[in-house]
């Protein structure tokens, strides 16, 4: 029997009262939240605690919880060589009134502020040490094993979804088959990394993905700053030089150039130019 899907999926935690939820989490974890640190988003609420940690609370409809679960941060805690806030514990419960579940994860505080929004409009002037940290963590992540599947944009990435995304935007003439699947963060953008000290956070979407997904995603979020986009491609050239890295470049370009493209998006033209170049390269490889 399928799980019921809550009609409350459109609930926005930025406006919905969350006092009772936070009180329950505080009691369960044995913490006190610092009121002036609460950050409210559409489906999550976060706050700093009196023991110097951060708690992220998420509300998720049962229909959005797959067999993989929704314990990304907990599963990421076992990764070796990846710089991230240490995971401390969690509390999970099913809502008594709606077909939704709540999950609160407690982690160490970030070592710095997020670099910026998901898409940057100016160069963050990152140090060479920062780039070294990024490279070391992404390389370490890709070298590990997991049964999880990455869920960029909240949907599992599969061969079918890759082919569908590419064919919807780009004409045929090249093979869309992915050859190498490796663990990836799944949502790598400038809002999920810190500086000046590098750290990678928000692990809800991590899992196996085509090689180069993370590199291509960070490049796509840099396109409004050409020098930064070039730096990403230089630093992650081992990914971009592979056939799968080229497919992932087209995959992220398809999100920018697809049917929901915004005419004022500064990434449109650079994405279009790169896509034309990559399609030509892939056709030449056949």
Uncertain runs are: 1-9
Q: Just name the CATH architecture of the largest domain.
A: Alpha-Beta Complex
Q: What number of domains?
A: 2
The CATH class of the largest domain, by name, is Alpha Beta
- Percentage of β-strand residues: 15-25%
CATH fold name of the largest domain: Aminoglycoside 3'-phosphotransferase, Chain: A, domain 2
Task: Give me the Rg, rounded.
Answer: 20 Å
Q: What's the story with the biggest beta sheet?
A: 5 strands, antiparallel
How widely separated are the two ends?
46 Å
Average pLDDT metric: 93
User: What's the helix-strand series?
Assistant: HEEEHEEEHHEEEHHHHH
Q: Write out the strand line-up for the largest beta sheet, numbering strands in chain order.
A: 1-2-3-5-4
Shape: globular
Q: How many β-strands, per DSSP?
A: 9
Structural class: alpha+beta
- Please count the helical segments: 9
Approximately how much helix is present in the residues? 25-40%
């Amino acid at each position: 029997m399928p799980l019921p899907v809550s009609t409350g999926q459109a609930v926005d935690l930025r406006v919905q009262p969350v006092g009772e939820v936070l009180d329950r989490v505080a009691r369960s974890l044995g913490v006190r939240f610092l009121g002036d640190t609460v950050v409210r988003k559409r489906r999550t609420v976060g706050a700093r605690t009196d023991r110097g940690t951060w708690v992220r609370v998420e509300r998720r409809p049962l229909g959005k919880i797959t067999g993989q679960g929704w314990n990304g941060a907990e599963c990421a805690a076992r990764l070796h060589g990846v710089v991230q806030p240490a995971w401390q514990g969690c509390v999970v419960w099913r809502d008594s009134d709606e077909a939704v579940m709540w999950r609160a994860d407690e982690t160490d505080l970030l070592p710095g502020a997020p670099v910026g929004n998901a898409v940057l409009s100016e160069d963050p002037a990152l140090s060479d040490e920062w780039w070294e940290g990024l490279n070391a963590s992404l390389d370490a992540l890709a070298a590990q094993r997991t049964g999880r599947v990455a869920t960029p944009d909240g949907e599992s990435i599969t061969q079918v979804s890759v082919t569908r995304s590419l064919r919807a935007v780009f004409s045929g003439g090249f093979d869309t088959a992915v050859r190498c699947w490796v663990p990836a963060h799944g949502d790598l953008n400038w809002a999920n990394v810190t500086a000046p000290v590098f750290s990678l956070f928000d692990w809800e979407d991590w899992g196996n993905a085509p090689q180069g997904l993370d590199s291509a995603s960070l490049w796509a979020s840099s396109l409004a700053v050409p020098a930064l986009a070039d730096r990403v491609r230089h630093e992650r050239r081992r990914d971009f030089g592979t056939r799968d890295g080229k497919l992932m470049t087209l995959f992220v370009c398809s999100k920018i150039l697809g049917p929901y493209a915004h005419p004022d998006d500064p990434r449109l033209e650079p994405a279009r130019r790169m896509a034309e170049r990559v399609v030509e390269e892939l056709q030449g490889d056949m």
